[in-house]
Design brief:
This protein is an all-alpha fold. Helix content is 64%, strand content 0%.
């Protein structure tokens, strides 16, 4: 069931605010800024808003395949995913009522874990070593 206060405007606000922070962040900003050219950010933000709209509102607007793009980023590590979740948590707690923030976070944690599993599989790593990272976890020191 979709909470009544969750709408497209809230999804867009979360996406725009989060990626504004992420692009300036010392841990994940360099990755985002290397992979996505400045001129491509408006279209990328729309795509990400479509993704979250599909995930949370069932809009069906997102048809992409994000996994291959993330697998192609060699430096992605648990440190990056932990930082992504921390900033995401800060953003949704700042912008959303608690029930909606919890919904965003549950999905973000699940997405992050699935991405990490697929990346580890692609790299030939031991999948048993991939443990869930929660939005409140500290980023591992090792990249």
């Amino acid at each position: 069931m979709i909470p009544p206060d969750l709408d497209e405007a809230m999804v867009t606000a979360v996406v725009e605010t989060f990626y504004g922070k992420a692009r300036r962040d010392e841990v994940i900003g360099p990755v985002f800024n290397r992979v996505i050219p400045e001129a491509d950010w408006p279209a990328h933000l729309k795509t990400i808003a479509d993704f979250w709209s599909s995930m949370l509102l069932g809009s069906g607007r997102y048809y992409g395949r994000p996994m291959p793009k993330h697998i192609a980023i060699p430096e992605l590590s648990d440190r990056h995913f932990a930082r992504w979740l921390k900033l995401f948590r800060e953003t949704v707690e700042e912008l959303c009522p608690p029930e909606i923030a919890a919904l965003f976070l549950e999905r973000a944690e699940r997405i992050g874990y699935n991405f990490r599993l697929r990346i580890a599989q692609f790299r030939g790593e031991d999948l048993g070593q991939v443990k869930p990272i929660r939005a409140g976890d500290e980023a591992p020191e090792q990249a």
